[in-house]
Design brief:
Blueprint (H helix, E strand, L loop, with lengths): L1 E9 L5 E9 L1 E2 L6 E2 L36 E5 L5 E5 L4
Antiparallel strand pairs: 1-2, 3-4, 5-6
């Protein structure tokens, strides 16, 4: 089984783009759940944004992994593509 996620990456000129990716998940032997391989994480933070907040275009300060627990957001990449992300998306 695979789960889908969106990756944002920068090209050689520094312009960001979206890429649709998939991660393999396998059944577990301890519950009727599916699990991907583990990734190493060195830092973790939670972000809460006010409703209707609009931020300015910026470069991410480092690699980030974002999961929307609630609410939604529209994000524009450097090449001008817009995508909508809602609860449960990552």
């Amino acid at each position: 089984m695979k789960v889908k996620y969106t990756r944002v990456y920068s090209d050689k000129e520094g312009k960001s783009h979206f890429s649709d990716e998939e991660a393999e998940v396998k059944s577990t032997n301890f519950a009727p759940l599916f699990l991907s391989r583990f990734s190493t994480v060195t830092r973790l933070a939670y972000l809460v944004a006010p409703s209707n907040w609009v931020g300015k275009s910026h470069l991410a300060p480092h690699r980030q992994f974002t999961i929307f627990l609630s609410g939604d957001s529209d994000i524009e990449s450097g090449d001008g593509e817009n995508r909508h992300f809602g609860s449960g998306r990552f």
